[in-house]
Structure formats: structure tokens, C-alpha cells
Amino acid sequence: PKAEFFEILLKETDRLNKVVEEYLGLARSRSAEGTTALLDLGDLARQTAALVGVQTAKRGVRLTTAIDVPLPVEGNPVHLKQVLLNLLLNAAQSTRPGGGIHVGGVVREGLVKGLEFRDVEGRLVQIVVEDEGPGIPEADLAKVFLPFYTTRPEGTGLGLAISLRIAEAHGGTLNAENRPGGGARFVLTLPAAAA
User: Fold this and answer.
1) Which positions ≥6 away from 114 have C-beta within 8 Å?
2) Which of 27, 79, 154, 181 has its C-alpha lying 20 to 30 A from 145's C-alpha?
3) How much is the pLDDT for 30?
4) What is the pLDDT at residue 24?
């Protein structure tokens, strides 16, 4: 009986530790502090997808990537990997066995923050994570990035809030929408770095 109690105690301690780490991450992610580097966001997305792909394959969920061009950004690789990991894990938890997750990446022209925070035309990189889950209820779309908002009993509601803060600290955005055919789509948009 004591062994069962200690197992529960360890699991709950790990869960609480994760909540505290995520809460601290939320507070720290206001700036892209730490090491920044020129990196290929596409490579980072492929590496993160390969990591999550092992877990999704065991559950019978397909994970595909289509990133055919370099996606150069200036940023903190640890923070940006955390954003990608949060998006992919959320997609994996939303997708039932037999469904799929797709990760795409593009470079396009659009508005970026210039001097004095004015919008100017520039190059952007985007990572799109789409899942074949149930989608996001319309009433919840405006709430998904709020701290502590979650629809999962085991969730803390901090993953997407932290991800949005990291994207904003890198001069970018993170948006959520429903796919026309069902499922959710998250779009991470960052200013492109000079290649």
C-alpha cells in the first residue's frame, strides 16, 4: 500500500513542478532573453516533429511535414522550440487514432514591426500546425491564449499563453483558427532574418 501511495505522490509532485515551471516560463518569456542566433525555423520544426512523431505513431496518428524552403529567423532556439513543442503536443492530444497532424512552412511578404513599432512591409516566415481533431469551439477561440484557460483536466492552461508571449517577444504573432474541413490550425509568424 505504501508503494502505491508513493507512486501517486511522485506523479503529483511532478505535475505540480511542471505547473510551477510553466508559470515561471510565462513570467520570463516577456522578452527573448538569453542566447539568440540565426537559425532555420524549418529545421527546428522538423526536429521537433521527429521528437513528437514517435509518440504520435504509437497512438496511430500520422505526423507529416512539408517545409521545402529555408525559414531563417533571428531568435532564441530554446524558446522557439518550446513554442513548436507546445503546438505539436496540443495537436497530438486533440487528434484521435487514424487522424493526422500536418506541419508546413512558408516565406511570404507581409507587415512586420519596424522602427517605432510602425508596421512596414517585409519578409515573414510562417509555421502552420494543423490537426484533424474536433477543432476549437467558436466561443473558445478568443480564450485559447489566456493564462490558465484549458479544456483538458490534466492541462495547466499555460502552454499556449507562454507560446504567444514567446512569439511576441520575437516580434511575431501566434494565431488560432478552425480548418474548413475540421480540426484546428495554429500559425506562428515571425520576421524573416537576412539569409
Assistant:
1) 120, 122
2) 181
3) 47
4) 59
Beta bridge partners of 184: 178
Please give the residue that has the higher pLDDT: either 85 or 30. Answer: 85
Other Cβ atoms closer than 10 A to 76:
20
C-alpha cell at 9: 505522490
Task: Annotate 164-185 with three-state secondary structure.
Answer: HHHHHHCCCEEEEEECCCCCEE
What would the pLDDT profile of 102-155 be if each residue is shown by its tens digit? 999 999 888 766 545 556 678 899 999 999 988 888 888 888 878 765 666 566
Rounded-to-integer distance, Cα 48 and Cα 117, Å:
31
Residue 187: Cβ-neighbour burial (10 angstroms; 0-12, 13-18, 19+): middle
Burial of 175 from C-beta contacts in 10 A (0-12 / 13-18 / 19+): middle
The DSSP annotation for 85-126 comes to HHHHHHHHHHSPTT-EEEEEEEEEEEEEE-GGG-EEEEEEEE
Confidence at residue 152, expressed as pLDDT on a 0 to 100 scale: 63
- Report which of 94, 84, 82, 81 is spatially closest to residue 155, judged by C-alpha positions: 94
pLDDT of 49 higher than 90: yes
